[in-house]
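Late entry, evening session. Most of the bench is empty. Finally got around to the prediction I had been postponing all week. Sequence below, unchanged from the version circulated by S.P.
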Amino acid sequence: MTGIMEMLNRIVMGSQEFSFLDDEICYRVKTAFDKGIDCILKCQIEENGVKNVWCQQHDEIDFHPQNARSFEPAVICNGESAGIVKLLMSIDNPSEEIINSVQSAIRWFEKSKIYGMILVWVDSTHADFVYHSTDKDRVVVEDPDAPPIWARFYELGTHKPLFCRRDGEIVYSMKEVERERRTGYAWYVDWPQEVLDLYPEWQMKFTKNENVLKK
């Protein structure tokens, strides 16, 4: 959905690649884009009065986090949320609500960093699964010099990194996930780092007096 919204935003911003569109279409696109942003803002997860980021899927009526595929439970999802925040940061004249949404997400990305570990591919026996084949396995290795990383999923309420087996069983370490999902899904990501790298310039432009990364 962020890909669709990014395309709509390019039309709204008057990108030359869409110069063939007439005024009526552009008006309809602007209306659709504004509705999409409104939906995104309503979906941002709030716990005890504090907003963080988003789930992979939200209820179409009350906007609460919902389960997606069997191994994608209703959680705080740092993976897809990184793309959402980049979209919000790309808006030229953000409303106060959009600014507050970005600030809340940046706080969460900073708070949810994980240090001291890296993911490593290791040789293993050949295995054929329904959707992929592999001669590798993926393991977590301690490394005190590793850059920060993020779990893709964090449990609602507890904020513990969370993982899930294909049958829907929730576990709390990647090694408890079966090999098919360990090698076929991104359980740890570095995507929020790109957002944090973009933040200083955005912050100076739109909220000069409030840098949420300042301790």
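Two things to note before I forget:
Residues 23-43 form the longest helix (21 residues).
The longest strand covers residues 117-128.
Will write this up properly tomorrow.
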